[in-house]
Amino acid sequence: MGEALRDLLVTPAEMAAIDEDAVHSGIESFSLMRSAGMAVSAAALRLFPSASRFVVLCGPGNNGGDGYVAAAALAESGASLAVFALGDVGKLKGDAARARAAYAGEIQAIGTYEPQAGDVVIDALFGAGLARDLPDEVQEAIRRVEDSRRPVIAVDLPSGIDGRSGEIRGASFTAAHTVTFMAAKPGHLLLPGRTRCGTLEVFDIGIPDRVVRARAGDLRINTPAVWQQHASGLDPATHKYKRGHLAVFSGPQISTGAARLSAMAGLNAGAGLVTLVSPPDAIAANAAHLTAVMLKEMGKTGDLAAWLKDRRLGAFVLGPGFGVGKKARAFALMLCGRALVLDADAVTSFKERRTDLFNTIAMEGGQVVMTPHEGEFARLFPEIAADTALSKIEKAQAAAKLSHAVILYKGPDTVVAAPSGRTVVNANAPPWLATAGSGDVLTGIIGAHLAQGMPAFEAAAAAVWRHGEAGTRAGQGATAETLVANIPPFDYSATRPMGRVAL
Ligand SMILES: NC(=O)C1=CN([C@@H]2O[C@H](COP(=O)(O)OP(=O)(O)OC[C@H]3O[C@@H](n4cnc5c(N)ncnc54)[C@H](OP(=O)(O)O)[C@@H]3O)[C@@H](O)[C@H]2O)[C@@H](O)CC1
Ligand SMILES: Nc1ncnc2c1ncn2[C@@H]1O[C@H](COP(=O)(O)OP(=O)(O)O)[C@@H](O)[C@H]1O
Ligand SMILES: [K+]
């Protein structure tokens, strides 16, 4: 994809392999630990210059090793310092033992640490190697620190956060700042991990780009770099059909608002024209509310078949407020060969009949995006949702493979996964996007992108990002209507720096 290292997401297993490759390529492993520990001590001094005391909590592995390097550097800077270790420091191995040996000060047992006013805690207990729930002794130490509200700087990850899934293994610190190395990990972006990291600093400890890229999979942070090259610039000689014709299907008379929100969002997001397709009983309600969006009456599936002969219809949105049942299934199956967003009721309608949908998508080969929130995901993919061994990323990937569609798994940490395995995790969405109708707006934006010819994965990822930006622009009191009005223009020539992500 040619994007910057800062856009990659690397799993702990991949990071361990990267570390090994770096050493095989001739880099001294201790030099990596030294860089990591020095970055931590620099962050501590930069962020908390008036700390009365730095307290470094060191674990039994290399995360602890980074802690000893940081402790030695802090001692050298003249800062007041205390070091507490988990377990027998005599049993440390390799680089961690070497780092510990280079720290000349006293080391106390972690169980004896009582937080004091003015302490700044450096959490170097566990990082990427966390393999099971934290021992009780560590959970108790975490509770004491959390109760004291002393600020915490986490080394690599707040201890207790699973770097692969973002899950909490028994307990975890809540850091003010996390320093990680070379690339962010899924646990930094997925919930609940993300809420425990504070600001995230991705520090380059000197592993060459090519070594990192060679092991990194298809996982990225959702930034414009992922989809920018597919975003259509406006050709001065364009006309409205070239900008794409989006069709949005309305529900019956008493539930028309959701589809109108999608339609308005589609228009504001750049579709050249948008048609709201309405059942006869809802025509009057829809007509009373629409101006730029066009209206078309349609009752039966036969009418849809005839209309679909118009190849200028670029993309379709089916689901918001549409109603669950046979009609939704029939319409969806007729549209699987086109560019299509299936949301809300259209997803739920296939709860007992998903094989029909998945087979038709595979056979017709359209550009299909499904946008389930957690509840809808569990309806369509119950066995995947119930598998507690899988992270949200892995769940979205499994669902995409099974359904042959791009899966946009919504939430504070929205994941977009393609059947090929390509996946992004989103990080720009403010919490006030959780407002009624917000998902309908997102669906409309995806529809606009599809209508303009973007491939399904890029259309979905770009829409999640623009939706997040719209939320930020609309501000804390955002409603679905103000989100529509705040969809930013599709011009991302200048991408935002992501080296330090404010989470
Ligand atoms: N990647 C890189 O390029 C670089 C990485 N660096 C640093 O290395 C860190 C990763 O180091 P790591 O692999 O030694 O893992 P780490 O997190 O210290 O813990 C593992 C130790 O804890 C143990 N253990 C595990 N879970 C446990 C539990 N619940 N309760 C109790 N024990 C448990 C486990 O032993 P086990 O009992 O499982 O055999 C093992 O002894 C990484 O986060 C970064 O800070 C830097 O130095 C620079 C280069
Ligand atoms: N806490 C949150 N932070 C950021 N975005 C969120 C949060 N909660 C929900 N969202 C986003 O808000 C939208 C809500 O959509 P959805 O659940 O379909 O609700 P609705 O059907 O009411 O529109 C989704 O895009 C989702 O990702
Ligand atoms: K840590």
Automatic annotation (TrEMBL):
<feature type="binding site">
    <location>
        <position position="440"/>
    </location>
    <ligand>
        <name>(6S)-NADPHX</name>
    </ligand>
</feature>
<feature type="binding site">
    <location>
        <position position="123"/>
    </location>
    <ligand>
        <name>K(+)</name>
    </ligand>
</feature>
<feature type="binding site">
    <location>
        <position position="63"/>
    </location>
    <ligand>
        <name>K(+)</name>
    </ligand>
</feature>
<keyword id="KW-0630">Potassium</keyword>
<feature type="domain" description="YjeF C-terminal">
    <location>
        <begin position="223"/>
        <end position="494"/>
    </location>
</feature>
<feature type="binding site">
    <location>
        <begin position="127"/>
        <end position="133"/>
    </location>
    <ligand>
        <name>(6S)-NADPHX</name>
    </ligand>
</feature>
<keyword id="KW-0067">ATP-binding</keyword>
<keyword id="KW-0521">NADP</keyword>
<dbReference type="InterPro" id="IPR004443">
    <property type="entry name" value="YjeF_N_dom"/>
</dbReference>
<keyword id="KW-0547">Nucleotide-binding</keyword>
<feature type="binding site">
    <location>
        <position position="159"/>
    </location>
    <ligand>
        <name>K(+)</name>
    </ligand>
</feature>
<protein>
    <recommendedName>
        <fullName>Bifunctional NAD(P)H-hydrate repair enzyme</fullName>
        <ecNumber>4.2.1.136</ecNumber>
        <ecNumber>5.1.99.6</ecNumber>
    </recommendedName>
</protein>
<feature type="binding site">
    <location>
        <begin position="62"/>
        <end position="66"/>
    </location>
    <ligand>
        <name>(6S)-NADPHX</name>
    </ligand>
</feature>
<keyword id="KW-0456">Lyase</keyword>
<comment type="similarity">
    <text>Belongs to the NnrD/CARKD family.</text>
</comment>
<feature type="binding site">
    <location>
        <position position="373"/>
    </location>
    <ligand>
        <name>(6S)-NADPHX</name>
    </ligand>
</feature>
<dbReference type="GO" id="GO:0110051">
    <property type="term" value="P:metabolite repair"/>
</dbReference>
<comment type="subunit">
    <text>Homotetramer.</text>
</comment>
<dbReference type="GO" id="GO:0046496">
    <property type="term" value="P:nicotinamide nucleotide metabolic process"/>
</dbReference>
<keyword id="KW-0479">Metal-binding</keyword>
<feature type="binding site">
    <location>
        <position position="321"/>
    </location>
    <ligand>
        <name>(6S)-NADPHX</name>
    </ligand>
</feature>
<keyword id="KW-0511">Multifunctional enzyme</keyword>
<dbReference type="GO" id="GO:0046872">
    <property type="term" value="F:metal ion binding"/>
</dbReference>
<feature type="domain" description="YjeF N-terminal">
    <location>
        <begin position="15"/>
        <end position="213"/>
    </location>
</feature>
<dbReference type="InterPro" id="IPR029056">
    <property type="entry name" value="Ribokinase-like"/>
</dbReference>
<feature type="binding site">
    <location>
        <position position="439"/>
    </location>
    <ligand>
        <name>AMP</name>
    </ligand>
</feature>
<feature type="binding site">
    <location>
        <position position="156"/>
    </location>
    <ligand>
        <name>(6S)-NADPHX</name>
    </ligand>
</feature>
<dbReference type="InterPro" id="IPR030677">
    <property type="entry name" value="Nnr"/>
</dbReference>
<comment type="similarity">
    <text>In the N-terminal section; belongs to the NnrE/AIBP family.</text>
</comment>
<dbReference type="GO" id="GO:0005524">
    <property type="term" value="F:ATP binding"/>
</dbReference>
<dbReference type="GO" id="GO:0052855">
    <property type="term" value="F:ADP-dependent NAD(P)H-hydrate dehydratase activity"/>
</dbReference>
<feature type="binding site">
    <location>
        <position position="258"/>
    </location>
    <ligand>
        <name>(6S)-NADPHX</name>
    </ligand>
</feature>
<dbReference type="Pfam" id="PF03853">
    <property type="entry name" value="YjeF_N"/>
</dbReference>
<dbReference type="Pfam" id="PF01256">
    <property type="entry name" value="Carb_kinase"/>
</dbReference>
<dbReference type="InterPro" id="IPR036652">
    <property type="entry name" value="YjeF_N_dom_sf"/>
</dbReference>
<comment type="function">
    <text>Catalyzes the dehydration of the S-form of NAD(P)HX at the expense of ADP, which is converted to AMP. Together with NAD(P)HX epimerase, which catalyzes the epimerization of the S- and R-forms, the enzyme allows the repair of both epimers of NAD(P)HX, a damaged form of NAD(P)H that is a result of enzymatic or heat-dependent hydration.</text>
</comment>
<dbReference type="InterPro" id="IPR000631">
    <property type="entry name" value="CARKD"/>
</dbReference>
<dbReference type="GO" id="GO:0052856">
    <property type="term" value="F:NAD(P)HX epimerase activity"/>
</dbReference>
<feature type="binding site">
    <location>
        <begin position="410"/>
        <end position="414"/>
    </location>
    <ligand>
        <name>AMP</name>
    </ligand>
</feature>
<dbReference type="InterPro" id="IPR017953">
    <property type="entry name" value="Carbohydrate_kinase_pred_CS"/>
</dbReference>
<keyword id="KW-0413">Isomerase</keyword>
<keyword id="KW-0520">NAD</keyword>
